[in-house]
Each structure stands twice: as C-alpha cells, then as structure tokens.
C-alpha cells in the first residue's frame, strides 16, 4: 500500500464514497416510494369505505323507488285491505322472485297499521306472521310518514331496509318494507370497485339459534371466533378477515392492517367501523385492495432510480477526480520533477539521508523538502562587528 499512488488511493476513495451515496440514496428513494404506496393504499381503503356509503345510498334509492311502484299496485292494496293473506301472497310471490333476481331484494314485509304494528305477511317467509317488529326504520316511517331506511341488524344478520307508509285516500292503511341481504350488497360493491370485502358482526347483537336456521346449507361459522361472527365475505382467502381486535373500538377513520403478499401479488388490508340505523357500532367492514400494480411500479422505479444514481455518482466522481488530477496532482508532479532535477545537477546542497514515510509521489516530495530544509552541514553565522569568533565582545582595555 505504501507504493500505491496517492491519486489512485483518492480515486478509489472517491468512487467508494460516490457508490455508497448512490446506494444509500436509492434506498431512501425506495423507502419514500413505499411510504407513498402505503399512503395511496390507505387512501384507496378510505375510498372503499366511501364507496360503501355511496353504495348504501344508491341501494336505498333503489328500494325506495321499488316501494313506490309496489304501493301503487291496486291488486296488492285490495288484497291487503281485505286481509286476504293467501291472495296477497299469490300476487306478491312472483314479484319477489323478479326483484330477487334483478335487484337482489330478498325480504318483503306487509305491516298492519298501529297502534300495535304487526307483520301481516312475510313474502319471503309466509309461515311466520303476526309478530311485532320493533325496528328503527319502521318506527321512523310511522313517526314521519316518510321513508325510513338504513342498515339494521336483526337476529340473523345485517340487511339494508326501507319502509314506507301505505297511504290510500289520505289514510295510512299499513306499511310496506323491502330489504336486501348484506351478501348481495358486498357482491355489488366488489363488482363496482374490484376490491374484496368482508363483514364481521358482534355476536351480542345476534341470536345463535336464529343464525343457524338462517344459514340453511351454508357452513355455520358461529364458533370460529369468540366474540364476532363472519356475516359475509366476497373471499375467504388471503386472510381478509384476520383480526384480533375489538370491532367496537375501530376508529372512525378506519385502521390499516398491513399488507399480504403471495405469489408476486400484494394486497393492502384495512377495517372500518359499521353502524346500524341507530348509530351503534356493531361490526367492522374489511377491505382487501389489490396493490400489485403499484408495488411492481415501485420496484421498477427503485431499480431505475438505483441505476440512475449509480451513473450520476460515477459521472460526479469522474469530474471530481479529473479536477483534482488537473489542479493538484499535475502541479505536484511537475514540482517534484523540477526539484529532483535540481538535486541531480548539484544545484542543491547535499542533504542527509531521509527515511521515506511512503513511496508515493507525496512521500518522495516530502523527502525532498526535508533534504532542502535540513542539510547535513550547517554553515556558521558570520560574526557581528566587535564580536570575537567565539561569540565574546572585545574591549580596548583589560579587566
């Protein structure tokens, strides 16, 4: 190492520093890209939550418009006023089949007027009738004589409900209610956004026996979790509903649950609070948003920025090395050669032997300076006037 040129050492050092700065800069750029992708993922999740609210409003408008059309049906009104349940069921059944297939409407109720509201007919479950329903949407319709709508949690599951008073000749003759199971609601959202959704609801708001009855042939997931049950999900893969927290403590702005990566694909997960028509926080909506394209773009951007920074670092290092060579080492080399030439031509006094600290150009130049500044023989200084050669002053008289 002692014989390696200082300029070579400097070149290696500059290149090492430049490459180190480039790699560090690329890593910082990659982390910035990742943070931006995470922020975009959170924005996408919050957008999905907004889509959930927009979808709810759209579905309520659909239910309200369908109710308006049904309330104008004379055949239904005459059968209901006559309290002819069989006739009403015969007229309503084909209509519900059409609405279920076309509009995903799964529940249809006819309620008698007050003072004690009773279910006169459930078209979807005709054998169950005569019970009193105490739901907020129905109470709102009774109180305001307008539309009462919102998500409500019955004994079995969530449903989006809409209720209108049935007014004929200025009198309320009853109430009609339509509802849509949340299963169709989430499927519609997936078709609209491409995201995957899942819904958890606290068991304290459900009845286990009624839940098992409502499931039919579907697998019963009641015992899968201690405090919540999976009401519906558009996919059971990718860990969409993995959550160990309390769904009643989910913040209003939602919570980011990290990412899931499998087979070169990446998803970002989040959960948002779900409230029923009364405003109670009864569950959580999971959202699984595909970020594969963004993740691949970030990876490509990281590689591109890495190579660009490497090239820029090498160019900068070459410029610095060139300037240092031209402004420093060329002049030092010229000075060293001139001094060695003068020493070889005996223009300089003979100097002592100097031990080289290094064998590079600076070491040799340092040795040359030592020869000049510290020669072997030092010439005695000339005596001052009135001073003897040995340094004592002379006097005219003796002591």
Quick structural gist:
This protein is an alpha+beta fold and 399 residues long.
Beta-strand residue percentage: 15-25%
Largest sheet: 5 strands, antiparallel
Approximate shape = rod-shaped
Number of helices: 8
Low-confidence stretches: 391-399
Rounded mean pLDDT is: 79
Question: Helical percent range?
Answer: 40-55%
Strand order of the largest sheet: 2-1-5-4-3
Radius of gyration: 45 Å
Global structural class: alpha+beta
Count of individual beta strands: 10
Cα end-to-end separation: 68 Å
Secondary-structure element series:
HHHEEHEEEHEHEEEEHH
Count of discrete structural domains:
3
Structure explained in plain terms:
This protein has 3 domains: 1-43 and 296-375, no CATH class; 73-182, PAS domain (Beta-Lactamase), CATH 3.30.450; 195-290, no CATH class. 47% of the residues lie in helices and 20% in strands. The strands form 2 sheets. A 5-stranded antiparallel sheet has the order 2-1-5-4-3, sandwiched between helices. It has helices spanning 6-71, 74-81, 85-103, 136-144, 182-193, 208-215, 292-344, 361-373; strands spanning 107-111, 119-122, 148-153, 158-168, 171-181, 196-202, 228-233, 255-262, 265-275, 281-290. With 399 residues, it is an alpha+beta fold. The relative contact order is 0.12. The model is unreliable at 391-399 (pLDDT under 50). The radius of gyration is 45 Å and the shape is rod-shaped. Helix 1 crosses helix 5 (182-193), helix 1 (6-71) runs antiparallel to helix 7 (292-344) and helix 7 runs parallel beside helix 8. The protein contains 8 helices and 10 strands. The two termini are 68 Å apart.
